[in-house]
Write a structure and sequence with these properties.
Keywords: ATP-binding, Cell membrane, Glycoprotein, Kinase, Leucine-rich repeat, Membrane, Nucleotide-binding, Receptor, Repeat, Serine/threonine-protein kinase, Signal, Transferase, Transmembrane, Transmembrane helix. The chain is α/β, with parallel strands linked by helices. It contains 15 helices and 53 strands. It binds 2-acetamido-2-deoxy-beta-D-glucopyranose (6 copies).
Length: 934
Amino acid sequence: MKIFPSFFLFVTTLFFSVFSLSLQASSPSQSLYREIHQLISFRNVLPDKNLLPDWSPDKNPCTFHGVTCKEDKVTSIDLSSKPLNVGFSAVASSLLSLAGLESLSLSNSHINGSISDFKCSASLTSLNLSRNTISGPVSTLSSFGSCIGLKHLNVSSNTLDFPGNIPGGLKLSSSLEVLDLSTNSLSGANVVGWILSNGCSELKHLAVSGNKISGDVDVSRCVNLEFLDISSNNFSTSVPSLGACSALQHLDISANKFSGDFSNAISACTELKSLNISGNQFAGAIPSLPLKSLEYLSLAENNFTGEIPELLSGACGTLAGLDLSGNEFHGTVPPFLASCHLLESLVLSSNNFSGELPMDTLLEMRGLKVLDLSFNEFSGELPESLTNLSASLLTLDLSSNNFSGPILPNLCRSPKTTLRELYLQNNGFTGKIPATLSNCSELVSLHLSFNYLSGTIPSSLGSLSKLRDLKLWLNMLQGEIPKELMYVNTLETLILDFNYLTGEIPSGLSNCTNLNWISLSNNRLTGQIPRWIGRLESLAILKLSNNSFYGNIPAELGDCRSLIWLDLNTNYFNGTIPAEMFKQSGKIAVNFIAGKRYVYIKNDGMNKECHGAGNLLEFQGIRWEQLNRVSTRNPCNFTRVYKGHTSPTFDNNGSMMFLDMSYNMLSGYIPKEIGSMPYLFILNLGHNSISGSIPDEVGDLRGLNILDLSSNKLDGRIPQAMSALTMLTEIDLSNNLLSGPIPEMGQFETFSPVKFLNNSGLCGYPLPRCGPANADGSAHQRSHGRKPASSVAGSVAMGLLFSFVCIFGLILVGREMKKRRRKKEAELEMYAEGHGNSGDRTGNNTNWKLTGAKEALNPALEIELLQHLKVAVACLEDRAWKRPTILQVIAMFKKIQAGSGLDSQSTIGSIEDGGFSTVEMVDMSIKEVPEGKF
Ligand SMILES: *[C@@H]1O[C@H](CO)[C@@H](O)[C@H](O)[C@H]1NC(C)=O
Ligand SMILES: *[C@@H]1O[C@H](CO)[C@@H](O)[C@H](O)[C@H]1NC(C)=O
Ligand SMILES: *[C@@H]1O[C@H](CO)[C@@H](O)[C@H](O)[C@H]1NC(C)=O
Ligand SMILES: *[C@@H]1O[C@H](CO)[C@@H](O)[C@H](O)[C@H]1NC(C)=O
Ligand SMILES: *[C@@H]1O[C@H](CO)[C@@H](O)[C@H](O)[C@H]1NC(C)=O
Ligand SMILES: *[C@@H]1O[C@H](CO)[C@@H](O)[C@H](O)[C@H]1NC(C)=O
């Protein structure tokens, strides 16, 4: 075999030498021979030699994977999404110099290194290097200046930076038409000016979104510009100078901090088809816009006020999509919009629109597919004429308004119904769920939670063969969960909490193997947890709390390969905790529940009737401030509420995060396998009859925040290994048979003595000192001066149950705080002695500020700490589009570690400008709602 390639080379060489005698030296086939050489030498530098198996010297390169030829010349190479794992220099030396190459696409190909000078083929017109890890200053792109025919250059989603004003500007081919620099690490004020300083007369498409660019944008010299995207940067000064703007069709300046009047700036852009200015700080009435050709307009997430102005009717000839969500508009859908016959998507959510549904106007919009009026003040009963509209919509979202009366039975009366999403949650709907909803045969999401619906769940819903989400929680539904749901193989989410449902979990649900969130808490359900539960491979959240389930906890729960949240509190489960249920620890991949809006109500333990660690509620389309409606049905009064969107916490090595089996009749021992869950935040086994000792392995639960083993029959000592539980903010071991010294646990916390009371001889802090009989030297005595600190980081961690990246930041914050607190205690005492009772306590002179002054002695640490906190807070952002991606967070952490900080303005001064202490900042961001508010 080995001789074959050389044989082939020999033959081809011979062939070419013979032919070049008679033909021109530039014979296409001869160049092919040279190209084989270059392609093979590229393959040979790849770390994985098997990545391109058919790139072999004895084959025609035009048959190589990813290679296209024209007239016997390699003209195009596409190796996108192949993990090449090479530096840019290898690409440059072997591929970019291919004489006839016109197009090279290496998107997401694991290319790193920086761009260096190289010799580029003159025929190259298109180069796509997006989604790699190419780094270095953006000025290195000038190396592409030698590609004199380059028209398309895409280097988006790399890590190019802008270290400052580099003389000369960016030197690229003067015929460049497309330049995409989105999602790099470009920051600073003059980036766009620098990029364009050598002209842009041919440029049609410029994208720099997802960087941190500020300052001005002037594209007035780019006379052919059709597409400009500067979204998601730090622009705040003036909107771009667009010049004559005769070609611009697409303008996106969203997610910046623009404000003021921009109508002059864009008034000349009469060709504009798409305008997105969402997520800025524009305020006041909608200004005049160039509407003539506009097909898509988004003014979302600004501070616009007033009614929808008639001037928008100027766009009605062309407008297909209008998004005014997240402003302060009031009034109603104005009649003139009826003439927008092409309108397909009308999104008016999160404003103050009110009145009855303006059916006359809506019915005129014959092409309407998406109608989103959620989070407004619309009221009244649903008009019968809505049925003329609903069947032809894809999405009807009326959630979080003040609608009342019955849900119309004929929402899908047309046989050609297309309705996929029906959101009516958080209104005042009464009456029964119409059985005829089963006519909505295309329905994927049905969300009727937070209403006053009564009667039973119609069994006809079992014929909705595409249904994925069935959410009916907080109504007054009775009867059984219809067994017909077994025909809905597509079902993923089944949320029925807070109703009056009876009967058992229907066995047919075992066929719904896509189920990932089953929540049936606070009903009157009974029966056993079925053994088939183990067949639900996607099941991530199972909540059965506060029902009348009984029997053993099936070992098969351990077969649920995705289970991260198990809440079984307050039922009649008996038997032992099966060790098998922890079988998946360290192997769980959470792919199923990302991006779901939730609220977690922490049980503050004040109320004896309120059981369990806390309540996780699905909250899509429901106003946070309506949470008090839950308290009418829940014995818990809550002091802490956490909200957010679920996001993956781990890739493939996860474990359960929440395990609450309290208030049952469980007996036997705590299996040592319980210690195998590295991501467990909350463990509550309280109020059972569990006996034996606490296994040492509980000390392996390094992420544990809250541990409640109270009111059992546990005996023996508290394992010294539990001193490794440094994240612990709450513990309750009271009412057991424990004895011996209490080890030091927790990150900042001093636990109340009450949490250890009623045992058989516990001693040591916070209980009285151990006597000579039980002191064993390992008991850690703490100074009495230490007051219980507010468990800020602990609370944040709670709020972030799903968010690993943030937890990472907080662990660092926590470590640092703990170190300081130790130091501080000593300093604080000295301070108190020196100054006595000074009595000058002002609002600012709190403990925190007092110690803050001392901590500022180490400004570098202070900045680093606050930078971590900033990252954490960014992760807590409500608006998904503002939240950093995992990659961005990792990049931020890397920057902090490298000492360069999050942004250049991050000095102590600017941090203090905000006037917040770190504590307030975190509290604000998690919206820790004081009890009084509800
Ligand atoms: C590029 O990636 C390769 C393989 O992943 C690695 O060995 C090399 O150090 C990286 N080079 C740079 C400059 O990061
Ligand atoms: C480059 O690749 C990205 C990602 O695969 C793709 O979205 C884009 O259309 C490509 N651009 C060009 C100019 O080929
Ligand atoms: C926009 O409105 C919000 C809430 O009404 C307010 O907090 C914010 O300061 C306003 N921003 C501007 C730029 O007016
Ligand atoms: C449910 O699954 C069982 C076995 O897995 C199968 O025999 C039965 O036909 C399925 N039922 C439905 C309604 O799909
Ligand atoms: C659990 O309770 C059931 C009745 O609900 C009873 O039959 C069974 O014996 C109990 N098992 C144990 C281990 O106590
Ligand atoms: C909790 O609510 C109950 C009534 O449901 C009330 O009596 C009690 O005082 C409340 N507890 C606290 C701590 O506010």
